[in-house]
Amino acid sequence: MSDAVSSSMIDDIAVVKVDQPPVNAIDQAIRKGLSREFSQLRSRSNVKAIVLGCAGKTFIAGADIKEFDFGIGAPGYHEVFRLIEDSPVPVVAAIHGTALGAGTEIALACHYRVADEGARLGLPELSLGIIPGAGGTQRMPRLIPIEAAADMMLSGKPMPAERAKELGMIDSVVTGDVIDAAVLFARQLLAQGKGPRRTRELAVRSTENVAQVLAEKRAQAVKTMRGRTSPAKLLEALQAAAEKPFDEGLKVEMAVSAELEKSIESRALRHLFFAEREVRRIPGLSDNVQRRPVESVGIVGAGTMGGGISMAFVNAEIPVTLTDVSQAALDAGLAKIRKNYERSVSRGSIKADQMESRIKLITPTVDFSALSKADLVIEAVFENLDLKKETFLRLDQTAKQGAILGTNTSTLNIDEIATVTKRPQDVIGLHFFSPANVMPLLEIVQAKRTANDVLATAIDVARRIRKVGVVARVCYGFIGNRMMDPYGREAEHCLLEGASPEDVDSTLERFGMAMGILAVYDLAGVDIGHLTRLALGDVFKKDPTFYRPSAMLTERGWHGQKSGRGYYRYENGKRTVDPEVVKLFHDEGKRLGVPQRKPSTDEILQRCLCALINEGARILEEGVAVRASDIDVVYTSGYGFPRFRGGPMFYADTVGLKNIYDRILEFQRTLDSRYWQPAPLLEKLAKTNSSFKQWQAEKAAVRAVAS
Ligand code: T1G
């Protein structure tokens, strides 16, 4: 019998409490416990009302997501929630923290809801590729207008208690102990002779032109959630709520839920939910490592990256000292920061006073010695090894003992950068993604000499600034950019074989990529990628076709959006195909003797994906990434890989590694075999009919035994 659910009496009011750290997620044991308690209380005549509350930091934050992989054991959600709703005495939910998913749904099955003023309520199921499956799609529109219910479920964003009360979801918002307040609320109900108020018996609110409202939401969702199935399915369940009696509508919700729970989309998103939490665990790095304090940060370089990184820290209320070589460069950097904040204010995502207080946390200076007080200094100067070494030499002489020295390099060898200091153990890579104040990914690059407390501190800092910190070991391009290299190589080579930039990018975007790779190069600057590759030495000598298109664009000064043309033309903010560039690449392909095969969209897609996955396998076997799922987190949170496909390694597992392997062997026969050598790990897993997930689990098991 699970003791995570208990009940006690306060005079004639029963308090049922759930206590399952860390977030009171409902699993089978909790459902059994709730069923036991509510069944028993039902038969006790001295119970005049029931309060349902939780211990710990939050009310129920949803169903236990892990359970979906194994099937929901009995009793099911509907059975337990119906038991609560059918209680012969009033049931009051006492909500604090973040009630999410089944947490919100169980509250809807209660007859009344009292919430702490800081509480929030949400139905984020779409972020897991499912819909509210415990009655939420049928009960919520009976408490709040169906349009507001649709918005709540489509956005997945938690709603503050006050707003929930305004809409009709919450009966009372309180301060102090919420369970005490709920008991008092129940006592007032009894005094007023009020009994149960079953949500399912209420009418659905505001159904005027509901079909049109939901049709508009569907059209919107098709645009904003490209390639996803669950949004339309959610609207189907809401349509049923508007048109059918409760129990009929519930059947629609149950059928849709059952279908989505098995979908690849949901498996992919559930995979990412846990993968984004697993990234914090580094084998051999104990949780008890003493972290270094990080209460102040120094940033070297007020350019695009330095400015964005500064914003990421002050957004988390960590003061920043921002330096640059000249006042002009500093002023330009600060102006850009203010412009970015003004855009956020105009969009309503922050208030003007918040903007001012954040900017106040930035101390701009051209005096490098001002960095001597910082707990963490991050260098964000131009991507040049000599310049970075020079900067680290100065930091070694300036920064206080014990300060962490971070470099924002995106490709360079951090071990080499660290050699110029007398404290290589304090050096670590902190690779942010542009715009650094927006992009959630932070590649934390552990160099050979990086100390464990520096690594552990960096992982914590990532969480404090609301980034997903993924640990990588040193190699060219770490995880993300290293895998991007063969991916981009294939995309560019297709241009020499007769495809157009539009062919390549539209194929990748149809697959779900946020943006085609060539449009990304135009956004980031075609010259940046070319110069980085040039720094690699004689790659072009070995293969004159290697990234030839971007070399040609750079030679002509066509660097992308910033120069009005690149792979495309950019006029008045619009991107258009450039026939001159298309012809330039095809003629060059013919000149270099590249067969004008005009690859099909399927081949373009498979070449880019197989190249990406194959390099991912190499990264795993070399130990540059700890887990395959870490690579998935890097690509979905930093490179626009579709979340509903789970990331490149998860995707490969869904396709089957044997199929990926066979396709690579086919490309080895039909294309430049130098580039199509299967990674030994991929070959092994393909030949043993295994998967990256299985390989990861086996590695974790071996580590667990060894530790
Ligand atoms: N199921 C299983 N484990 C969960 C969990 C859940 N719902 N929520 C959190 N955890 C684990 C998490 O993996 C981590 O474990 C630890 O708890 C702390 O989480 C029927 C079908 C609540 C805002 O989508 O958004 O209800 O890594 O690190 O930053 O319709 O957790 O320590 O081992 O994230 O303070 C809907 C998911 C489910 C909410 C707290 N609910 N959770 O954030 O802690 S579907 C959700 C969160 C559903 C019904 C449907 C966040 C949080 P570990 P954490 P946090």
Structural class: alpha/beta
Determine the mean pLDDT.
96
Q: Runs with pLDDT <50, length 5+?
A: none
What is the makeup of the main sheet? Answer: 8 strands, mixed
Biggest sheet: strand arrangement: 12-11-10-13-14-15-16-17
Q: What's the number of helices?
A: 30
- What proportion of the residues form beta strands (DSSP E)? 5-15%
> Roughly how much helix do the residues carry, as a percent range?
40-55%
- Termini separation (Å)? 33 Å
* Each distinct ligand: (2S,3S)-3-hydroxy-2-methylbutanoyl-COA
Number of strands: 19
Question: What value does the Rg take, in angstroms?
Answer: 28 Å
Overall shape = globular
Structural summary, described in words:
The protein has 707 residues and is an alpha/beta fold. Helix content is 50%, strand content 12%. The chain has 30 helices and 19 strands. An eight-stranded mixed beta sheet has the order 12-11-10-13-14-15-16-17, sandwiched between helices. Strands 1-2-3-4-6-9 form a six-stranded mixed beta sheet, with helices on both faces. The longest helix has 21 residues, at 327-347. It is globular. The two termini are 33 Å apart.
Question: In brief, what are we looking at here?
Answer:
This protein is an alpha/beta fold and 707 residues long. It has an eight-stranded mixed sheet, with helices on both faces. It has a six-stranded mixed sheet with strand order 1-2-3-4-6-9, with helices on both faces. The protein has a three-stranded mixed sheet with strand order 5-7-8.
